[in-house]
Write a structure and sequence with these properties.
The chain has 124 residues and is mostly helical. It is built from four helices and no strands. It is elongated.
């Protein structure tokens, strides 16, 4: 009987590990698509890609993966109750949605948004 319980626990954790890997890989792929699209849009707009602009991708990765890592820990703790890592999957889906939205935005929209942010902060 104990062998059966241990087998079910291990199988549950293996399924969680697969789902977690899929979530992280999907977010990495979405970030790669956004990175390539950003480089392409900058090239088409005639803008120079600086190291500072490229560092934004690492900042974005930090903003995406730290909460996902925390939620993954919560999912592992709740793996005996929940059948899948729902918290990490939801966060991953949100991150992918944000990346997809970023890819679909035009360069004109992004420059107008940046102008609004710069003009709003210049008063302080």
């Amino acid at each position: 009987m104990e062998f059966l319980v241990e087998t079910l626990k291990n199988a549950s954790l293996h399924i969680h590990a697969v789902w977690l890997a899929i979530a992280y890989i999907a977010v990495i792929l979405a970030m790669a698509v956004d990175f390539i699209a950003g480089l392409r849009k900058a090239k088409l707009a005639g803008k120079v890609t600086t190291s500072r602009a490229l560092k934004m991708t690492t900042e974005k990765a930090t903003k995406y993966f730290l909460p996902m890592l925390c939620l993954s820990c919560i999912d592992v703790l709740t793996s005996f109750v929940l059948s899948a890592p729902f918290f990490t999957l939801l966060m991953g889906a949100f991150n992918i949605f944000c990346e997809w939205k970023s890819v679909l935005e035009s360069t004109h929209d992004k420059s107008a948004y940046t102008y609004m942010l710069n003009s709003a902060t210049s008063y302080y």
